[in-house]
Amino acid sequence: MTTTAYEPNMVLVNETFDVVGTRPIRHDGADKVTGRALYGADFDTAGLLHGKILRSPHAHARIKSIDTSKAEALPGVLAIVTAKDLPTTKAGVIVDFGEGNMELKYLRDNILASDKALYKGHAIAAVAASSPHVAEEAAALIDVQYEVLEPVLTAPEGMKEGAPLVHEDLKTEELGEKTDKSSNLASHFRHTKGDLDQGFQEADIVVEREFNTVTVHQGYIEPHPATALWNQDGRLHIWCSTQGAFVVRDSCAQILDIPVSQIRVVPMEIGGGFGGKINVYLEPVAALLSKKTGHAVKIVMSRADCFEGTGPTPGSYVKVKIGAKNDGTITAAHAYLAYEAGAYPGSPVGAGGMCVFSAYDIDNVVIDGYDVVVNKPKTAAYRAPGAPNAAFATEQVVDELANKLGMDPIDLRLKNAAKEGTRRADGPVFPRIGCVEVLEAMKSHPHYSAPLEGPNRGRGVSIGFWFNIGLASSCSISVNDDGTINLVEGSTDIGGTRASIAMQAAEVLGIAAEDVRPSVADTDSVGYTAVTGGSRTTFATGWAAYEAAQDVKRQMIERAATVWEVDADSVEFDKGAFKSKTDPELSMSFKDLAGRLSSTGGPIVGRAAVNPQGAGGSFAGNIVDVEVDPETGKVEVLRFTAVQDVGKAIHPSYVEGQMQGGSAQGIGWALNEEYYMGEQGQMTNTSLLDYRMPTSLDLPMIDTVIVEVANPGHPFGVRGVGEANIIPPTPAIANAIHSATGLRLERLPMNPGAVTEAGWKQRK
Amino acid sequence: MPGKTYVQATINGEHTDFLCEPRQSLLEVLRDVIGLTGTKEGCNDGNCGACTIILDGRIVTPCLVLAVEAEGKEMTTIEGIANGSTLHPIQQSFLENAALQCGICTPGFIVATKALLDENPNPTEYEIRFWLANNLCRCTGYDKIIRAVQDAATTMQEAKA
Ligand code: FES
Ligand code: FES
């Protein structure tokens, strides 16, 4: 009898390749382990000035006056800017940078408040000075007079009749129609499928519950940095840490009202983003300060600035009702999703609506989504934005159904799992997806059948769906005469994408991953490339690299034909060598031909620009064991297994890394993290000591199973991996807590206080 | 403005001197005055560990040390970890184990790991987690970092044997 050792990280390989699927050392690795890599805050240039932003101490206040005279008088202060220095905006001008529409006025007001401060931390004014300390002193000398207003802090509060209005002129959009009702409810949408009432009538059992989640932050370790130089020739140069250099360029062009051609954005290395480094905050302010002073101006946020002045992900109120037959068939589902948008419309409730029931094939569905403005920072994307809030509800209700029906929770999910041909309530029909395969991998995982030893322990499972996106990417490749290639692309490398992109080009050209020199270029030097976000980079920019490599291959085949004086059609490329289809004598390696390019007609450059539509959705599931301390309510995660269908893992190590990182963020969201708000809307825990993200001591090893159900919409089958993994942890942990204690946790975070309180309620 | 103080110290084995204001942190001076930007700032209040350096044999967060306090001290920063033109086994292990994603936390983790393995060449998983608990990483979930430290410990033990 043979026993196989337990594999903490499994890859259920579908198709094998030479380079794709291997684990080379990342190309930017040495720079990043020696401290040589330059991140946004590391940028320096001659005559650099330092900026500091003064932020509102009030969550909701009318700005009556701003007196900068004392600050201006401080030696070392060179310029001060306020909203008056921004171009004025007419209401109703809409802009879109790929992450949804936004009123230009809101976009500008979020950079520097013009009439009202809408959240504590809202930028009011900024100083440029000879040192960061002088800038800070000067900012404190700016005298702002406020009329303090009552804040509104949660979606349900904001929707109440008579609630204080965040924007007096905001009119509700009801099912696509603008109404003339002034309200904090920016919009209400509805998706319907089938007949909901009929579906609930068919059900033998119905479970309905309400859930509340609170604001949490992306928590990247690098605070936002930006340096701007508005050159004397009128061109604006920006060095920053961003997920999308072109988004920074386009946003700044709109905000500052200058053509995109006048702006060059240099993406520095980025210290984490998770969606939070797409919007611009500092860049336009640094630009205004640079224009006034003629110097480059650098602004770096403090940690508190990050929490209070940049997009968190929203708190939400979610009600989910699901009905099922006794055999486990789900017959109907209704979701009511109310999300905080923050100070301006645009919460991720839309995405929440796309994901809330999408792991299931249900005939009768209604999904209502409400986007509500509140006096908190404008929400930004955070890893599968909107989906975790919804899944926390759905996956607990499904768990409760399984309990009541006496069914295994994975079997119940398998019975109702979405598959190819399932139509989502929001419209799309699923192509080939891996929901069933993920559930099956969970069911057969040794973790699922391992005995749970000891008291107060429980096990929970859950599944989550994220749609992933495509969008535009560009890439060019030049061939070096030593047989290597230089690859230029425009996607910020947040977690190993230089490698995953380079490997796709290497696969096409039959060379080693190490023979590719990938670099991320500025906006003057590469074609338009959308954000590193939406799990799209390895999918779309990888595809651009694939196409650029195909272009190189075509040109190299022609060159080989020229050298051999044969027809290009008679030359083929296989396993790194050019061969004549007819004459076996004629064969040349990629390297040999590369060395002869200059003598046979000149250099070869391949290029591609793509905008692929076929992003395949990704499903992620978790199996979690917890132990709940009956005295304190503290939950410890004992064992954690993350399973995800990624289509094809180009570099499995970094795929596992995404799964583990998303899981860790989900665990933090589940158990600790929250904006702890004072009554007047002040976040009271603005340090990393008090905003408690998981440390190494809080987590177990995070085991992974990579499922590969190839995406028919990508040359190597890639679906994308970055986001879906943050969706299942909160409900899986909640379900594990229920299995350990019998308690249903209806709010996040499930910290000791929440668990203890739920216990008291149950005993009452 | 307060006058500047003249400070002499040893950084990565080299005698170094600098002028600093009394209010400047050692982190600010390392990065902005001396130009050693490999040491990262994540919080400026001691809670993230991104700035971790070794000061007189102990790991400290220089965002909580005043630069004037560095007088006469010996420091190792991330720039001093590699052995000339070859990576330190810890650095190599971080690469081989894919123990970094964005990499902003990496210098702090590598320096902290160096101090750990200097003191405890064969740590358990728990000891590694305990030692590194002041270093936050938001990208990796720590799994691959723990494995990288374990592998580095093994390699360094084998090299000694
Ligand atoms: S910057 Fe020093 S501990 Fe965070
Ligand atoms: S790798 Fe990004 S914070 Fe650790």
Tell me what you see in this structure.
The complex is a heterodimer of chains A (764) and B (161). Chain A is an alpha+beta fold. Among the domains of chain A are: 1-15 and 431-465 and 617-764, Aldehyde Oxidoreductase, domain 4, CATH 3.30.365.10; 40-151 and 231-299, Aldehyde oxidase/xanthine dehydrogenase, a/b hammerhead (Aldehyde Oxidoreductase, domain 3, Alpha-Beta Complex), CATH 3.90.1170; 470-610, 2-Layer Sandwich (Aldehyde Oxidoreductase, domain 4). In chain A, 27% of the residues lie in helices and 26% in strands. Chain A is globular. By secondary structure, chain B is α+β, with helices and mostly antiparallel strands. Chain B folds into two domains: 5-80, Ubiquitin-like (UB roll), CATH 3.10.20; 89-160, [2Fe-2S]-binding domain (DNA polymerase, domain 1, Orthogonal Bundle). A five-stranded mixed beta sheet of chain B has the order 2-1-5-3-4, covered by helices on one side. In chain B, strand 1 (5-11) and strand 2 form a beta hairpin. The longest helix of chain B is centred in the last third of the chain and has 18 residues, at 143-160. Chain B is globular and about 50 Å long. At the A-B interface, helix 1 and helix 18 of A face helix 2, helix 3, helix 4 and helix 5 of B. The site of one FE2/S2 (inorganic) cluster (FES) has 10 residues of chain B, from loops. Residues 41-44, 46-51, 61, 63 of chain B line the site of one FE2/S2 (inorganic) cluster.
